[in-house]
Each structure stands twice: as structure tokens, then as C-alpha cells.
Amino acid sequence: MTILNRLYASSGPEVLINTLQINIGNDVYYLCQGYEDITATTEEGKLVTFTACGIDVALPARNTDGTQDLKFAISNVEGFVSTTIRKALDSLSRATVTYRQYISTQLDSPSTSPYTMAIKSGQWTSLQVQITAGYMNWLDTAWPRYRYTLPNHPGLRYIS
């Protein structure tokens, strides 16, 4: 039996660990799901310590509606998360989240390809913070992106 078969059959000591890297401007926060901090290697070869906290992650749906949103909730018991998320929501263009998943016995690289998405929206209460991050909606984007219009190209008026 391979490690993945045993992992998904829940009959071995290995568990999946969900991690989040939240970038807000120059500030970077590393969080992991669980009760113990972990030190793991990212896909770039950087050794990082992820702080344990209560995280719940809903992965993006694989569908054709054009929105691939990652939704996650973080425990706000200590209160620093809501302050961080307020900063993220004030500067949405510079706030991103990277989701990685590790196997507890193999922390030398993520077990799947990481998702890096821009933070779109969020809300918080005294107990938890809920964030939505996603890719750009390509289905609702005009193409070609750069349009030839009369204000930018007045010579178009004389083409017939």
C-alpha cells in the first residue's frame, strides 16, 4: 500500500496539514491548521515556520462559472487576525494568500501545487475571520484588452 492510499484511507499515522501564507504589503504571515507549529519547506526551497491556529479551508470549485474562490476562516481568539485582515482589506491590491497542503511526514515540499490568489473580501467577528480570495474572472473580461478608440487613435475616423 502506498503512502497516498494509506493517507486517504485513514489507516496510517500521516495527516494532511493545510497552511496559509498571507502577504499584506511587506508583512508575511504563515499559519497552519492544527495544534502544533510546523517547520516546512516551500516550493521555492525556503524553510518557514507555520504558526498553528484554527483554520477551516473551502477549496475552489472545479466548474465553468469563471470564479475560482478560496474561502477560509481563521480563529480570531487572540485578536491579531482581525487587525491583520483590516489591513488586508484596506489594501486589496497588495494582499494575497497562498494555500499549501503538506503531508505530516513529508514537510520538505508541499504535497500539491500551491494556490496563490488575491484577497477579494472578508468579514470578521470577535471569534473568527472569514476571507474570500480568488483568481481573476477571465470569463467576464473583455478581449482584446487594449481597444483602438477614437480618443486614443483619431486617425481611425478616416479609415473606411
Characteristic terms for this protein:
mainly beta, 11% helix, nine-stranded mixed sheet
Task: Give the SSE map.
Layout: H1 3-9, E1 16-24, E2 27-33, E3 38-41, E4 47-53, E5 55-58, E6 69-75, H2 80-90, E7 95-103, E8 115-124, E9 128-134
Parallel strand pairs: 2-4
Antiparallel strand pairs: 1-2, 1-7, 3-4, 5-6, 6-9, 7-8, 8-9
Description:
The protein is mostly beta strands. The chain has one domain (3-158). It has 2 helices and 9 strands. It has a 9-stranded mixed β-sheet with strand order 3-4-2-1-7-8-9-6-5, with helices on one face. It is elongated. The model has no long low-confidence stretch (mean pLDDT 80).
Low-confidence segments, given as residue ranges, are none
Which overall shape is indicated by the principal axes computed on the Cα atoms? elongated
End-to-end span in angstroms? Answer: 71 Å
The number of helical elements comes to 2
Could you tell me the strand content as a percent range? 35-45%
Briefly characterize the structure.
The protein is mainly β and 160 residues long. It has one domain.
